[in-house]
Design a protein that fits this description.
Elements (H helix, E strand, L loop, with lengths): L1 E2 L9 H5 L5 E4 L2 E4 L10 H5 L5 E2 L2 E3 L4 E5 L8 E4 L1
Antiparallel strand pairs: 1-4, 2-3, 5-6, 6-7
Bound molecules: iron/sulfur cluster (2 copies).
Organism: candidate division MSBL1 archaeon SCGC-AAA382A20
GO molecular function: 4 iron, 4 sulfur cluster binding; metal ion binding; oxidoreductase activity
Keywords: 4Fe-4S, Electron transport, Iron, Iron-sulfur, Metal-binding, Repeat, Transport
Length: 81
């Protein structure tokens, strides 16, 4: 999962809409705080007004994995479900 900082307008919608509270606002920016709780529902990416959230899923033999990648302007994260 990535939040594209260039596109994000810090509206907070992803924070409000995520049913399992993966995001939190910190210093008026959304950060991915609880990646392990993500259910891959896709609502955040669908509802983001700036298309700033990208969810990437790779399925290996036994589980889905979400990669939270990042460089300077992105939220860095890596986690497995
Ligand atoms: S919904 Fe999109 S634009 Fe709004 S804070 Fe979240 S990532 Fe940024
Ligand atoms: S895809 Fe994950 S982070 Fe996004 S709204 Fe659903 S549970 Fe929350």
């Amino acid at each position: 999962m990535e939040i594209d900082r260039d596109n994000c307008i810090n509206c907070g919608k992803c924070v409000e809409i995520c049913p399992v509270n993966v995001f939190e606002m910190e210093e008026e920016e959304p950060v991915i705080k609880h990646a392990g709780d993500c259910t891959l529902c896709g609502v955040c990416a669908d509802q983001c007004p700036e298309d700033a959230i990208e969810i990437q899923m790779d399925k290996d033999a036994s589980r889905y994995r979400i990669d939270f990648e990042a460089e300077q302007s992105y939220v860095d994260w890596s986690n497995s479900l």
